[in-house]
Amino acid sequence: MLNISSLNQYYGGSHTLWDLELDVPEGECVCLMGRNGVGKTTLLKSIMGLVPVRGGSIMMQGQSIAGMKAEIRAELGIGFVPQGREIFSLLTVEENLKTGLRAASKLGIKKIPEHIYDMFPVLKQMRNRRGGDLSGGQQQQLAIGRALVLNPKLLILDEPTEGIQPNIVSDIGDVIMRLNRSKGIAPPKIAAAKAEVHEAIGRINRELGVTVLLVEQKLPFARKVATQFCIMERGRHVATGAMSELSDDLVKQYLTV
Ligand SMILES: Nc1ncnc2c1ncn2[C@@H]1O[C@H](COP(=O)(O)OP(=O)(O)OP(=O)(O)O)[C@@H](O)[C@H]1O
């Protein structure tokens, strides 16, 4: 579905991506891996047209997209959930989802597709709550739900569970948490919230048939959700394959910190 070859990217004079190759076959869930600063986010931004690239090609379903504006790439069926989620905290869940509809109306999508609420029941329950009042895990589900409004063929996610913290939406929340802790009441289960997000990504891939490319640093999650891996090191791809073939040697060489 997505084929990248000989891609180079520079931030000013700093050469960040070097002759990069990446294949994301239709129906697969590909995990981009590598230590901090190797260029994973830069590669995702290059695919989305958010940073300029030099040379090489980016093909989406056989069509060259390297010179296209970011909005056109979205219309061609590439959904993107950036790091940090970027949801609107003062808008309700439903209003947040509707912000995705403006671009979607060009594709004939006029209302929020029901399968988004099926995929994320919590968004249905909380449709009238403000985005800023949701927990980190719920906000991440909202960000993914919003990307699904465009009915993407390819969904790109940058570290979807990074930064999921206990719900400290206000000083009051903070005080409650501290009080709970002093009474021995455990804070909300972060691991469970992260697992929920990963499970949803797995279902989006398998049940909705959406091809997925994601950056995920946590190996157990990556192994669980992805079918293929691509490891990067200093701006270059160094190893690719089926997730079942990701060896301990590769992990040690390129992923262990
Ligand atoms: N806007 C920018 N201007 C200049 N250099 C940048 C910019 N954004 C990133 N870089 C540099 O490019 C390199 C790759 O960064 P990038 O964020 O793509 O890596 P990453 O693998 O996603 O890292 P992480 O896992 O920490 O998110 C790093 O050396 C980083 O400092």
Structure description:
This is Urea ABC transporter ATP-binding subunit UrtE. The chain is α/β, with parallel strands linked by helices and 257 residues long. It has helices at 40-48, 70-75, 93-99, 101-105, 114-119, 121-125, 136-148, 171-182, 190-206, 219-225, 248-255; strands at residues 2-11, 14-24, 29-33, 57-60, 63-64, 78-81, 154-158, 211-215, 228-233, 236-242. It has a single domain, classed as 3-Layer(aba) Sandwich (Rossmann fold), CATH 3.40.50. The protein is 37% helix and 23% strand. The strands form two sheets. A six-stranded mixed beta sheet has the order 6-7-8-3-9-10, sandwiched between helices. A hairpin with a 2-residue loop joins strand 4 (57-60) and strand 5 (63-64). Helix 7 packs parallel to helix 9 (190-206). Residues 11, 14, 16, 34, 36-42 line the site of adenosine-5'-triphosphate (ATP). Adenosine-5'-triphosphate (ATP) is lined by residues 11, 14, 16, 34, 36-42.
